[in-house]
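Sequence in, structure out.
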Amino acid sequence: MKIAIVHEWLTVMGGAELVVQMLHELFPSAPIYVLAHNPAKMPDHFRTMDIRTSFIQKLPFAKTKYRAYLPLFPIAVEQYDLSEYDLVISSSHCCAHGVITRSDAVHVCYCYTPVRYAWDLYHSYMKSLGRLSRLAAAPLLTFIRQWDYTSAQRVDKFVAISNVVRERIRKHYGRNSQVLYPPVDTQRFRPVPRAEIGDYFFIMSRFVPYKRVDLAVQAFNKLNLPLYVAGEGPLAARLRKMAGPSVTFLGRISDEDAGNLMARCKAFIMPQEEDFGLTAVEAHAAGRPVIAYGRGGALDTVADGTTGAFFHEQSPEALAETVASFKADEYDPEAMCRSAARFTLAQFKNRFRRLVLGISEERRWPAAGPAPSQTSER
């Protein structure tokens, strides 16, 4: 069985790129098709992979400004010649699922979400633009939605990263899907003895609007409790300006510092609605509870009252009320670690391999490798 992997771009390492790495480890001979690739920003082990780029790679500033070529994405992914492959695996949050395959080939899409700025975040995105930009964006995003829906009908099997994404796939594409949680590198995090737990709360995030770091800053201003904020992004100056004396900005931190800060915080703060919520799993791997907005991917990763606490209105007041009543000593670090164990790299690879072997049996193709050990899907 000949296999190809399709992803949007490989320009910085993140959760989706970790999935691509896991897929490559499962199917090392499969080429990886991407719109754009920036080797300098990717880990060294990606240099040994067979990465094939689209014509967008040759356009000006494509390695860093690839998003500016959004109108060309549908054309670019449809130009990949995948006619020799029996199985195509797309890793998609934007357009990778739009590839054209042979009629007798199987296309499995591992979907992080239908493209959010064209669907459920459309109106929020439009409000963030100036008047002229809105006039240009409206017809473009109408086209993107139409192409996105049409191209989704080419996929043979959708796999969603969380239950909220499964519902988006059903609503926007009219397609059923199964949930397979993404991999998290939990080995980078370790719990510490209770005596080493500090008195601060912790948030680690990109400073972009939907992450709602502003809610955390405003809530901890009200409470006058210590909050450490790690990350960077376009809203950095605005967030620093609104912060009171109890809020400390750390900038971009190393993986080692992230592990130390995570393991020693009273709780990790997640004020945004996530598609999955990778940082919540990392906090649990470090033995710490999570205070999260009770919607989206947090419902898959955080158990209210056991591994964290939810607030149900996305406002500084609601978050502040939950933090004020939060008792970190009531949470068992071992329960957090057991929760994180559901999302390990090995669990993901085992379950994805089983998925492909199931398709192989249905199509009577040669198996994609030795059978995995038998574990539950969820």
